Amino acid sequence: MPTIFRNKGEAHINALIIMGVSAKVGEHRIGYFGTGVKFAIPVLLRTNHKVTIWIGTDRYDFSTRPLQQIRDQDFEVVVMAKNGRKPVQLGFTTQLGRNWQLWQAYRELYCNCMDEDGTVAVAPRKITKGVPGETIVIVEGDDLERVHAERGKYILDREGRELIYSNEDVEIFRGVSPGIFYRGIRVSDTDTMFTYNVLAQQTLTEDRTLADMWHVDSIVRDAFLAIDDHKVVEAVVTKTDNEAGQYEAKLNFDWSGQKPSETFKSAVKSARKTPQGARDSAVNMYHKQVDDPAELYEIVALNGTQQAQFDRAKRYLNAAGLIPHIGKHRVIFVNCLGRRQFGEATKDLIVVNITAFDTGTKEVAATLLEEYLHVQERVRDSTRDMQNLLFATIMNVIEKATGHTI
Questions:
Q1: In the 8-state DSSP scheme, what is residue 276?
Q2: Would you state the torsion angle of the CA atoms of residues 309, 314, 315, 317, taken in this order, to the nearest 10 degrees?
Q3: Which sign, positive or negative, has the C-alpha torsion 317, 319, 321, 325?
Q4: Are 367 and 353 in contact (CB under 8 A)?
Q5: In the chain, is it the N or the C terminus that has fewer CB atoms within a 10 Å radius of its CB?
């Protein structure tokens, strides 16, 4: 059955066949490059579909014919016949958009319908007469019909989706997604924990992908600072075992100038108690909003054995000259920082996970030294500054042990 795209208004034929012509107006229009339909038509013809466009009562049929060989290569040029007259040759071949897939051609025609308040449907029979005041694109072919049936992969289907949060910039729905949507159209290939439909004006490339992910990241990040749903926010701020490629894991709350909600702060505290722990940038955002960073943690007291371990670790580090200003910093002990995380630091607070003591006094000393360097020297994990500081510290220890200056 044919797939029919009905658009309000009669398009100018030049807007459909001349590259770079786009006369769309309005803030919420998706297309503006003037290339979408011109790419879609060759893709459809190349995949053995039949294309007819009615502009008002004028009918335009698109097909192909062989072009004279160029450098021993064969080409099929696109031709167009108006109202059954002799076809005229257009300025592009079926190789235009050669890397495009069929679903991308569908998306282009669908976007035009969105821009013009139109409709898309599979009809039981072909339209044989145009309608004044409308532009109707008719595509015949089983493959596009199948794409239409699977359109939820790249066209946002709101039916059955639970809206978690919305503002003027973004809508957030429950459920995973293979990409981020922009005004109902998928514009990225990023796996996400929730489904995001960005509403704020974005710049797209000609293949309808986001030109600037940073802007989208900031919109989504700030939304989670405002959402009043504890479980949703906790899911986002909790670390996971496999965060490679996961969109939410890359959101940096550190960079936001927005004040977090009480729900966000509560969710970070809850994530802190999980075996996985809370994401670092969420913890840092929490710390910015409180006078005493220790309130994020459940502080525990050391038993006699643990206290002896800590005293021994501190004594050895002091003897080596590695923590000369430890007295300036507060040290607390907690029972959960997340799996395999023995310590962290913020402002002038050193936090040691009680599980470090189970590993041994050497681990306690290593944790205390690392977090001391963070608060004393203001260096972050996994940075060049931290690396340089560690090697400089090692060399100082070697000099002291050998009694010789390098």
A1: S
A2: 130
A3: positive
A4: yes
A5: C
CATH code 3.40.50 for 304-402: no
CA 289 to CA 282: how far, in whole Å?
A: 11
| Cα–Cα dist 306/333, whole Å | 10
What is the Cα–Cα distance from 187 to 209, expressed in whole angstroms? 4
* CA distances to 199, 273, 308, 309, 374 from 364, in Å: 49, 21, 11, 8, 16
pLDDT score at 356: 94
Q: Which pTM value belongs to this model?
A: 0.72
Neighbouring-strand partners of residue 238: 278
Segments of the chain scoring below 70 in pLDDT: 20-35, 242-245, 338-339
Please give the pLDDT value at position 236. 94
DSSP result, 288-352 = HT-S-GGGGS-B----HHHHHHHHHHHHHHHHTTS-TTGGGSEEEEES-S-TT--EEEETTEEEE
Task: Give the start-to-end residue ranges of the domains of the chain.
Answer: 3-150, 163-289, 304-402
* Residue range 82-92, pLDDT digits in tens: 999 999 999 89
Helix, strand, coil tally for the chain in percent (to 5) = 35, 20, 40
The closest of 311, 229, 213 to 262, measured between CA atoms, is 229
| Gyration radius of the chain's alpha carbons | 31
**How many angstroms separate the CA atoms of 377 and 63, rounded?**
70
Strand order in the sheet with 343-346: 330-334, 349-353, 343-346
Q: What is the pLDDT of residue 20?
A: 63
pLDDT, residue 209, reads 82
